[in-house]
Amino acid sequence: MAGTALAGNTYKWTDDNGQIQYTQLPPNDRPYTVIKSATASINEEGAESPLTSKPADKANPKTGAGEYTSAEKEKLSKNCDIAKQNREMLRTAAKIRVNDEKGEPRHLTEEERKARLADTEKQIEFYCDK
């Protein structure tokens, strides 16, 4: 499935290692669930999803204070680390294998790699600038 990121949405999907990911942008090559939210929300497993919008005044939308809670900071930091790892993989790996809509393995094209790298840079900007 492919999609366009909408303000206030988080996308939940499972990566090639079976790990659940929460991102601001949807993946291009796999199914995902849209979690609509202006801040954090509760997903179907009962876990809180990461923040999905950067407040204009840099105040935490939940508390009104100038800082995020430690749990929110932890989620942002984890997503930042994942995005940086993804960026490194997209920059250095000779070939990146993904599964198509039918679950069949294939390699990313150069255009797909560039698009994912651009998406990853946006994720780094979103998650790491807190």
What do these coordinates show?
The protein is α+β, with helices and mostly antiparallel strands. It is 32% helix and 15% strand. It has two helices and five strands. The protein has a three-stranded antiparallel β-sheet, with no helix packed on it. Strand 1 (9-14) and strand 2 (20-23) form a beta hairpin. Helix 1 packs antiparallel against helix 2. The protein is globular. It starts with 8 loop residues before the first strand and ends with a helix.
Short characterization:
The chain has 2 helices and 5 strands.
Please render the helix and strand layout as text:
Layout: E1 9-14, E2 20-23, E3 33-36, H1 70-92, E4 97-99, E5 105-107, H2 110-128
Please give the number of β-strands.
Answer: 5
Q: What fraction of the residues are assigned to beta strands by DSSP? A: 15-25%
Low-confidence spans = 1-7, 37-65
* Overall mean confidence score, pLDDT: 73
Sheet with the most strands: spatial strand order: 2-1-3
Overall SS class: alpha+beta
Order of helices and strands: EEEHEEH
Which key features would you list for this structure?
three-stranded antiparallel sheet, 32% helix, alpha+beta, 130 residues
